[in-house]
Amino acid sequence: MTDKRCSMREAIARYVHDGMSVAIEGFTACICFAAGHEIIRQRRRNLTLIRMTPDLIYDQMVAAGVASKMIFSYLGNPGVGSLNAIRRAVEHGVPAPLELEEYSHYGMVGRYIAGATRLPFFPLRSYLGSDMPRANPLIRMVEDPYGGAPIAVVPPLNPDVAVIHAQRADVSGNTQLWGLIGSQKEVAFAARRRIVVVEEIVDEAVIRADPNRTLIPGLIVDAVVHEPYGAHPSYAQGYYDRDNQFYLAWEELSQEHERIVAWLDAWVYGVPDRAAYLEKLGAARLAQLKPAPAPAGVVDYGAYQ
Amino acid sequence: MTDKRCSMREAIARYVHDGMSVAIEGFTACICFAAGHEIIRQRRRNLTLIRMTPDLIYDQMVAAGVASKMIFSYLGNPGVGSLNAIRRAVEHGVPAPLELEEYSHYGMVGRYIAGATRLPFFPLRSYLGSDMPRANPLIRMVEDPYGGAPIAVVPPLNPDVAVIHAQRADVSGNTQLWGLIGSQKEVAFAARRRIVVVEEIVDEAVIRADPNRTLIPGLIVDAVVHEPYGAHPSYAQGYYDRDNQFYLAWEELSQEHERIVAWLDAWVYGVPDRAAYLEKLGAARLAQLKPAPAPAGVVDYGAYQ
Amino acid sequence: MSYTASELMIVAAARALAGTRTVFVGVGLPNIACNLARRTVAPDLELIYEAGVYGARPARLPLSIGDPTLVTGATAVVSQADLFGLYLQGGLVDVALLGGAQIDRFGNLNTTVIGDYTRPKVRLPGSGGACEIAANARRTFMIMRLKRRAFVNALDFVTSPGHLEGGASRQRLGLPGGGPALVITDLALFDFDNPEREMQLIATHPGVSVDQVCAEIAWDLRLASHVTETPAPTADELRIVREELDPEGTYRGREPV
Amino acid sequence: MSYTASELMIVAAARALAGTRTVFVGVGLPNIACNLARRTVAPDLELIYEAGVYGARPARLPLSIGDPTLVTGATAVVSQADLFGLYLQGGLVDVALLGGAQIDRFGNLNTTVIGDYTRPKVRLPGSGGACEIAANARRTFMIMRLKRRAFVNALDFVTSPGHLEGGASRQRLGLPGGGPALVITDLALFDFDNPEREMQLIATHPGVSVDQVCAEIAWDLRLASHVTETPAPTADELRIVREELDPEGTYRGREPV
C-alpha cells in the first residue's frame, strides 16, 4: 500500500498548474478552503474553477486573481446573500474579467457522472422551456429512439484536478465520507488527478471494517493531505459546525475589493499554512464549532471464515 | 408514520396479480426466496419475472409454472452450474414455454436506472460488436450530439412490483442495506409497488441515527414484511451465510422436472409460510450459517443544536 | 393580533400545503412554512433538500440548505445524483417552493440576470436546482414579494419554465411536472386555474385592495371569478412560528403589517 | 513435481498478471490465479467483482462471485451501478478474465446459445457483465479448455466483442478497451500481437506438441515467430495454490497432467 501523504503545499505544487481546470467540490459541507488558500498563496493564474456552488471559496480565489473562467450552477453565499467578488468580476471586470459557463445543479452533476463513467453525454429532464441552452450551447438535445420527446443532454466534464475534503482516509487514499456527500464521488472519478484532504488519517483496518462507506478508492487518489479543520469556515459533519459568523462577515467584508485584498493579506498570504491560519483563528473559536456526539450505531458485516 | 407491516401472505395477495411483471432482485445476496415461495403457493400465473441473475428462486418459480416471460442478464446457478428448470422451459417448453428478453448486467442496471429516474433511455458503453442488439431490438443506438461515435441505449424498466430483501427497516419502510447492495435501490425506485422484506424491524431512531445507510425511503414502500431468514438459501450479510449445500443439491435435484415438483410439494406447497419452512429446515442448519461478529465501527454525525 | 408580512406569507404557504406528502424546499421562509405545515395541516409532510436530505428533523433553525442539523437525525441522506435523479426526476416531489427575481404571467421565472446575459446589469445566482425542479415537481408554489419590477411582462432570461406561453404549451414540450400552481406574495395570492394557465388573483391579504395589487403588476391582471380575502394568521399559527420555528426572528420579520 | 492441467492454467494466468494493478474477476480458477498473482508477481493487484466489491480480502475460498466473505474486510463495496459505471466503464480495469463456450480466431466470445438464438440447442448463461467487460477493460485474458468444439470458425452468437473482424475493426467501432490480449488453455497459450489481431500460438505446455494444439482448433492456426514452452509451475507456486488458496482442491483438479 503506497503512502501518499504529503503537505498541502506539496500537493498543490505538484498537481495544480497555471491554466488547469480545478474542481474543489462539496455541497455546503466539506469545502476545502485550505486547498483554495494554498492555490492563492502559490499564485496560480488562469485557472478554470469548477464547482456547483462557488461559495466563499471561489469568491476569495476570484478576488485573488487565480481564475479566468468558472463552470458552475449557483452563485450565492448560501443562506446569506451574494458572492460579491464574483459579481464584480462578471459585472465590472474587477480584478479581471471572468468567463462563465453555466448549468443547473443537475446539469453539473450529470457532467461529472458522464465524465466519471466515460459517457459521451448525460441525459436529464431539464432545460426544456428554459433560456439556459441558448446561453450555453454545450447543452444539447437528443432524440429518443423509443419515440418519446427529445431530451436535453450535457457533455462529460473531466477536471484536471479535483480536491475532495472528507472525514477520513487511510494513507493510500481509501476515503470515507458521511453526511452530505454531494457530488464528491462523481467529481473524484471524473477528474484526471485527485487530492484527498481529510480530518483524520485512519488505519486501513478502520476503512475495511465498513466498506460500504468507502466512496473513493485509493486507486484513483494521487495525494492524501491531513488537514484538520481544512474545510473551515464550512464544516465537516461530526467534526465541526459551519462558522456562520464568517459567512455573515464575508457579505459585509466583500462589498469592496480592497477590503478583500486586505483580508487575503492577513489570512492567506500572511500565514504560511493551515496550521498558522488555525492558530490565528484561535482555539476558542474552533471549540465553539464542536458538536455534541451523535453516534451512528453499529452494523455487523459478519466474519465469514 | 404509517405502519405498513403485514404478513408475506397479505403482501403477495394484495400486490402481486396474474399477468404482472415482478422483480425480486438481490445480486447473490438478499434474494427473497420467501416471496418467491409465497407467489408459488398463491399460484400466480403469466408473470413476467425480472432479475439480473434468475438464480434458484426463478428456477423454482418457472418450474412451478408462474411465469410466461423472463427479463434477465445471466442464467446460472452461481458458482455451481446451470439453471436446469429454466433451460428445460427454454429448450423444451417444460412445463411451459418461457419467453426471454435478454440484456447484459449493465444493461439491466441501466434499465432500472432509467425507470427510476424517468429517463427515456440509459446510455452505456456496451453492445457494440455484439449480437445482443440483433437478438433484442429494444437495445438501440443514439447519435452523440457532440460528434463522437454512436452509443448503445436501453429503455426504462418499471416492474409492477419489486420485492426488496434487506437487513432492516422501520415499520413505515425506511430501509437500510449493507454488504452487496446490488441494484436494490434502483429497482425499488423503478417499480410501481414495493414490498420490503427484512430480517429485523427496528425503531425509527435506529434508521435516523445513520441516514447515509437508508437506501429506500418509506415514502415509496407499500408493505413491510418481517421475515427472518427470508433470503435462505441465499444470505443476508451479517445475519447468515449462503447455504451452499442447498445450491449444490439443487444442481442435482433440478435435473428432472418431476423431482422439482416433489421438492415444491414438500418445501413450498407443503408448508403454510416461512416460519414452517424454517422449522422444517431445522434450527441446527440455520445455526451453522451464523457468522461470527464483524462490527463496522461507529462514525459520528454530531448533534447540531 | 398583529403580524408581519413575512408571517402572513409563511402561514399562507403552510396552509396551501394541506395534505401534501413531500415538499422540495430551501431555507428561510419556505423552510419555516413547511415546518409550520407539518405541525398543522400536513402532519405527514416530508422535507426534501437539494443538498441530498430526505425527511430532515432539524434540532435548530437551519441557516443554509446544507446545514449539518438537517443531516443528523434525517431519514435519508443521499448523493445529489440520487436526490435529483431518483427523488426529483423520479417524480416523488409533490410540491416545490421556488422564488425568483422576475416572474411573468405564466409563472416562468428568472433567477439568472437582469439585463443582457452576456453583459448583465445585475448578475443573479442562476438556476441552482430550480430549472429541473420547475420541470419535474408535480406542482410549484412561488414565494415572492409583490413588486412591479419583479412581476414583469417579459423576463430578461427564462431560468425555470412555468406554463411557458400558457395553455397546453408546457405539456406539448413534454415537461413531466404540472408547473406553477400558486404564487404567494406579501399582498395577495394567485393561482393558474384557467385554460390559459395565466396567473390570476384569488385572494388579497387583509387590508389590501385589488387596485394595490394591480399597481404592482406590469400586465393587465386577471381576476378569479371570486376574489376572497386571505384569513389572517391564527394565534396558534403565530405562536408556533414565533416560539418554536423562528424564536430569534431571523426570517419572520419585525415590522407589523 | 507433478501438477494438474488446472494448476498449470492458474499459474500461467497468475504470471501473466505481473505488475497489474486491477483485475476484474469471477470465482473458480480466475480467482485463484489472481490471488496467486498477488502473492507472487503482482503484490499491488486489487480484485474487482461485478457483485460490487473492490479490494476483497476473502477469509476463505469464495464459492460464488457474491460470497459474503468477499464483502467483509473489502476496501469498498458499491452498487452495481457504480461498479459498472465508475469502475469498469470509467476505465479503471486493467485486465479482465473471461471464459466462454465458443471463441473465434479474433477472440470474440459466445456465452449465449449453441444453435439458433430463438430455438437454441443449448441455452447458455448469457452475457452477465461480459459484454461490457469485453468492451471496456484495458485488456482481456480468456481462460478456457482447448477443445475443437470451443475454438470454432464462426460463433453461433457473438456475446462479447473481441477483435471483431480483426485489424483495426475494434477501434473503428469505438470500443474503449484494448480487447483480447491472451488466451490461457490447458494445452497452450495464445496472444493477438500481430496487425491482424488474430489469435497466435506463443507457447505450448510441457509435453504438448504444436500438432496436438492445432488438432483442437477449427481454423488454420497462426504461430508466433518463436513458439516457446510454458515453464512448469514452480514448487513455490504449487505450494501457495495447494496449501493456501485451494486447500480442499475445489478448483485445482485432481488428475495430474
Summarize the structure.
Chain A is of the alpha/beta class.
Could you characterize the architecture of this molecule?
The complex is a heterotetramer, with 2 copies of chain A (305 residues) and 2 copies of chain C (257 residues). With 305 residues, chain A is α/β, with parallel strands linked by helices. Helices cover 33% and strands 18% of the residues of chain A. Chain A has 2 domains: 8-103 and 158-288, Glutaconate Coenzyme A-transferase, CATH 3.40.1080; 121-155, no CATH class. Chain A has helices at residues 8-15, 33-41, 55-63, 84-92, 105-116, 132-135, 184-190, 204-208, 244-253, 257-269, 274-281, 283-288; strands at residues 21-24, 47-50, 67-72, 99-102, 122-124, 140-142, 151-154, 161-169, 175-176, 193-201, 214-216, 223-226. Chain C is α/β, with parallel strands linked by helices. Chain C contains 8 helices and 14 strands. Chain C is globular.
Topology diagram in text:
The complex is a heterotetramer, with 2 copies of chain A (305 residues) and 2 copies of chain C (257 residues).
Chain A: H1 8-15, E1 21-24, H2 33-41, E2 47-50, H3 55-63, E3 67-72, H4 84-92, E4 99-102, H5 105-116, E5 122-124, H6 132-135, E6 140-142, E7 151-154, E8 161-169, E9 175-176, H7 184-190, E10 193-201, H8 204-208, E11 214-216, E12 223-226, H9 244-253, H10 257-269, H11 274-281, H12 283-288
Parallel strand pairs in A: 1-2, 1-8, 2-3, 3-4, 8-10, 10-12
Antiparallel strand pairs in A: 5-7, 6-7, 8-9, 9-11
Chain C: H1 5-16, E1 22-24, H2 29-39, E2 46-49, E3 53-54, H3 68-71, E4 76-77, H4 80-89, E5 95-98, E6 102-103, E7 109-110, E8 113-115, E9 120-123, H5 130-136, E10 139-143, H6 169-172, E11 180-184, E12 188-191, E13 200-204, H7 210-215, E14 222-229, H8 235-245
Parallel strand pairs in C: 1-2, 1-5, 5-10, 10-11, 13-14
Antiparallel strand pairs in C: 2-3, 3-4, 6-7, 8-9, 11-12, 12-13
